[in-house]
Amino acid sequence: MPSAFVTGASRGFGRLIVERLAAAGWHVVAGVRDPAATVPYTAGSVDVVPVDVTSPAEIAAAAAAVERATGGWLDAVVPNAGVAVVGAFEETPPEDVRRVLETNVLGVMETVRAVLPQLRRAHGRVVLISSDCGIAGAPGLSAYVASKFAVEGWGEALAYELEPLGVAVSIIQPGPFATGIWSAAPIRGGEGAYASLTPILAAGWRAAGERAAPADPVADTVLRALSVRRPRLRYRVGRDARLMAAARRLLPSTVMRAHVRRVSGIGRWRPSRSNGRRRHRARARGRLRGGVGRGRLRRGRVRCRWWPRGR
Ligand SMILES: NC(=O)c1ccc[n+]([C@@H]2O[C@H](COP(=O)([O-])OP(=O)(O)OC[C@H]3O[C@@H](n4cnc5c(N)ncnc54)[C@H](OP(=O)(O)O)[C@@H]3O)[C@@H](O)[C@H]2O)c1
């Protein structure tokens, strides 16, 4: 029976992946932060181990538990645990940024490192859960985007190193799907220069979460990446991720950014008019071509564009 270790398995994608693999005949070790609070799995052969991926000691203990459960031959690891925070970067507290990077990047890396000896023995597979936020930047999600770009680059580098050792790496890029991640994400800031921006971002990402489709295709794609003879390096899941990848590949950067502005809901956003130095700064920006933002005087009124055009 093939074996897999999945982190962040208490809910969302992780739980679905555990259930999908177990139903397909896999022996799954489900890593959860709080086993007592986890609703029992109904399908197949599942062992639950406690693991907070920001704790090196818990990762080491979980890897030892995986080794005991699988006899040291692990066919797959899916380091899925992840968190998000919403807000303008300047107003996102460093501890939130650190929490996102420690969970989504270092947690993923150290989970993989801890089980690599078992994966190499079994010529197993690594399936990373990235995002369409690993394809293009999205306003209000800078820490999350940074974490997913890091996973993309690291995973691609890792794939070269592990291929000769018989371990394949796949990176899954889901668009938005209905899980608890967006309702759980704290919203930070919303004052001063960003007073009118943060509510738009918060409403936009929450609405995207509420509109999103059920996450089953993500679990199906993980199972496919683990079952096919030659897994691909990247799998895009859902229309949004496929569109974003195509837009990144095909559109000029200015059109691409207009697309991101539109889908993130900030297309019509202008910085708040409460800033007393607005006119002065807009004039200065108008002269500094290519600076951070460009101001224009139109019919006697100042309009500030957040991004310079044509970059
Ligand atoms: N949903 C989407 O639209 C979407 C799209 C693209 C990518 N993703 C990615 O998919 C992955 C799963 O997200 P999801 O949407 O399923 O979110 P979710 O429903 O909020 O589930 C997140 C899971 O991660 C666990 N977790 C959080 N911090 C952890 C830590 N420090 N140690 C161990 N486990 C931790 C949570 O455990 P607790 O129950 O203990 O909190 C939970 O099981 C993430 O990497 C996310 O970035 C999601």
Describe this structure in words.
This protein has 311 residues and is α/β, with parallel strands linked by helices. Helices cover 45% and strands 15% of the residues. The radius of gyration is 22 Å and the shape is globular. 40% of the residues are buried. It folds into two domains: 3-268, Rossmann fold, CATH 3.40.50.720; 280-306, no CATH class. Strand 5, helix 4 (142-162) and strand 6 (168-174) form a beta-alpha-beta unit. The strands form two sheets. A seven-stranded parallel beta sheet has the order 3-2-1-4-5-6-7, with helices on both faces. The longest helix is centred in the middle third of the chain and has 29 residues, at 94-122. The structure holds NADP nicotinamide-adenine-dinucleotide phosphate (NAP).
> Which strands sit side by side, in order, in the main sheet?
3-2-1-4-5-6-7
The CATH topology of the largest domain: Rossmann fold
CATH class of the largest domain: Alpha Beta
Helix content: 40-55%
Question: How do the strands and helices of this protein lay out in sequence?
Answer:
Blueprint: E1 3-7, H1 12-23, E2 27-32, E3 45-50, H2 56-70, E4 76-78, H3 94-122, E5 125-129, H4 142-162, E6 168-174, H5 181-184, H6 198-211, H7 216-227, E7 234-237, H8 239-250, H9 253-263, H10 278-287, E8 294-298, E9 301-305
Parallel strand pairs: 1-2, 1-4, 2-3, 4-5, 5-6, 6-7
Antiparallel strand pairs: 8-9
Helix pairs in contact: 1-7, 2-3, 3-4
The chain binds NADP nicotinamide-adenine-dinucleotide phosphate (NAP).
